[in-house]
Amino acid sequence: MRLPAGVSADVFNKALRAFAQALGDDWVYSKEDDVALYDDSYTPFVNEPDKQFRASAAVAPDTVEQVQQVVRIANQYRIPLYPISTGRNLGYGGSSPTYSGCVIVDLKRMNRVLEVNEREGYMIVEPGVSFLTLQRYFDEHQVPFLVSTPDPGWGSPVGNALDHGISYQAGDNFGMVHGLEVVLADGDVLRTGMGGTANSRMWANYRYGFGPVVNGIFSQSNFGIVTKAVFWLVRKPEMEQSFTATSFSHDDFEPMIDAMQKMREANLVYSSGVGSSIRESMATNDGRQPTGVPEVNALLKQPDGGTFAEWEALARRVNIPTVRVTASARGPKAVVEATIEHAREIYGAMPGVTLTLGAPVGFTGNNYPLRPRIEFGELGAQQTSRGHYYFSPVFKPTVEDLFAINDVIRRVMLEAGDTEMLESFGWSAGWTLAYPKACMILIEFLIFDDTEKNRRRRQLFLNLVQACGAKGWAEYRAPVAFQSEIIKQYNFNDHVLRRFNESIKDAIDPNGILAPGKSGIWPKHLRGAST
Ligand code: ADP
């Protein structure tokens, strides 16, 4: 049996018996085979078992009271816990903990949709509700909202939002969270915002309540176990239509982006993206097929990455545009059409810029696009891979930042001599799905059976984290294995942010039982152990 560090077999068995008394024997898993199910199937340390993060046991409470009991028992016996909603935060982690020996608190049984308020447009759900089950519920009850899912839909609205996940429907999923119920490390139950009043009438309607806004400190943290969340919902629009503006000249890029960002500011479009079609044209990220223009890779491998003139000449020759912006309008048909007309006017006034419209998408019935899927598009395409993890820095949606960050990434890959990585991901578009003023690049680090290659890729990942971090483009989210590295990039004023988080941790979880090391926040007794 795997034991949490510093806990004897005798004490651990006592804790397991106490868990079983609280939850019933069926809901405490300590047999090797059962616990192994919580290993991360997509660990970056495949074939390197000594480096993997593994649980000692798992418990599956069914009620808030049982979660409270679990936390109290853990305090009594000093057992580290690791809560998961569905444990499918794919690309950033599975169900395995940040610290080996944790007991997983698997919230899968707490899978109730507690309220869907159609008139006011919100829902209250438990953490075990997955995107797929929520969609089933919406279909069955003819609920007129979109499920705000990432790709794919095995995970949960709660787990995804708490990790600042992104979707095609709402974009910023944590932004849609307007209230949380949290079991604290001492077993107390807290409701945030107006949930602080005894009857919680306004809990779903006004997130601030009175006083400091604390929802945020329970996201990407280890300060509590969330047992309910209030989400505002995205009502099914009448239609949606995307549009893309392209040009063969770099000179057009700045006005193209500025126009897009102004539309975003005015809430005319709900998402936007910026890219260089020719530079991305040989990449295989997102399951894309390379275009078969080998000169692209030759230019990317040049020390300077190719001049603007070289790229423009190539782009014209193979008829793939140099630069691109894209966005989607969503809402009543008349409003979407007017937005498209507005885009036509703006981009039509830019000589050399071409506007292309996507097909209009309707949302009637139960068979519309943008529903939770069971697969990753790109994983299907990357047959040789054992899954992936993401490198995801944040930067400005400007010409300068897009080119500068891509140049840093390209140079780091070039220095590492990783031609395969350079050819697949040497130049990436930026997306502002979640946040209008912040672009994200998602670079997939594929995992292979080849241990040495995995090791080199992990090192490349860390080199990228450091090179981008030094420029102020730190990550917004990271796989479990790298979280302590990511927080090092947040180094203003001698890492005051991390020190502040540690002060909170020490105050509210003095025994350090909740998710040690999550987001690089270690309890006092483990500080320095893994950093
Ligand atoms: P998903 O439900 O999308 O599969 P996970 O269960 O993998 O997400 O959780 C993503 C991250 O959020 C993990 O680090 C996990 O520890 C944390 N987390 C998930 N659910 C909760 C919860 N109910 N309370 C506190 N932290 C949670």
Q: Give a list of the ligands.
A: adenosine-5'-diphosphate
State the helicity in percent bands: 25-40%
Percent of sequence in beta strands = 15-25%
Between the first and last Cα atoms, what is the distance in angstroms?
26 Å
Main beta sheet, described?
6 strands, antiparallel
Uncertain stretches of 5 or more adjacent residues: none
Q: Could you report the average pLDDT, rounded to the nearest whole number?
A: 94
Q: Which radius of gyration do the C-alpha atoms yield?
A: 24 Å
Oligomer: single chain
**Class inferred from helices and paired strands:** alpha+beta
Q: Assign an overall shape.
A: globular
Provide a quick synopsis of the model:
The protein has 531 residues and is an alpha+beta fold.
How would you explain this protein's 3D organization?
The strands form six sheets. Strands 12, 13, 14, 15, 16 and 19 form a six-stranded antiparallel beta sheet that branches. A hairpin with a 4-residue loop joins strand 8 and strand 9 (189-191). The protein is built from 16 helices and 21 strands. The chain is an alpha+beta fold. The radius of gyration is 24 Å and the shape is globular. Helices cover 33% and strands 17% of the residues. Adenosine-5'-diphosphate is lined by residues 82-89, 93, 107, 127, 155-156, 158-160, 162-163, 225-226, 515, 518.
